[in-house]
Amino acid sequence: MTIIDGKKISDDIKLEIANQVKDIVSKGNRPPHLAAILVGHDGGSETYVAHKIRACEQCGFKSTLLRFEEDVTEQELLQAIKSLNDDDSVDGFIVQLPLPKHINEQNIIEAIDYKKDVDGFHPINVGRMSIGLPCFKSATPAGIMMLLERYNIDTKGKKCVVLGRSNIVGKPVATLLMQKGNPGNATVTVCHSYTPDIKEICLQSDIIIAALGSPEFVKADMVKEGAVIIDVGTTRVKDNSRKSGYKLTGDVDFENVSKKCSYITPVPGGVGPMTIVSLMNNTLLAATKAIYK
Amino acid sequence: MTIIDGKKISDDIKLEIANQVKDIVSKGNRPPHLAAILVGHDGGSETYVAHKIRACEQCGFKSTLLRFEEDVTEQELLQAIKSLNDDDSVDGFIVQLPLPKHINEQNIIEAIDYKKDVDGFHPINVGRMSIGLPCFKSATPAGIMMLLERYNIDTKGKKCVVLGRSNIVGKPVATLLMQKGNPGNATVTVCHSYTPDIKEICLQSDIIIAALGSPEFVKADMVKEGAVIIDVGTTRVKDNSRKSGYKLTGDVDFENVSKKCSYITPVPGGVGPMTIVSLMNNTLLAATKAIYK
Question: Mutating which of B128, B129, B130 best tests the A interface, going by the most A Cβ atoms within 10 A?
Answer without folding.
Answer: B130
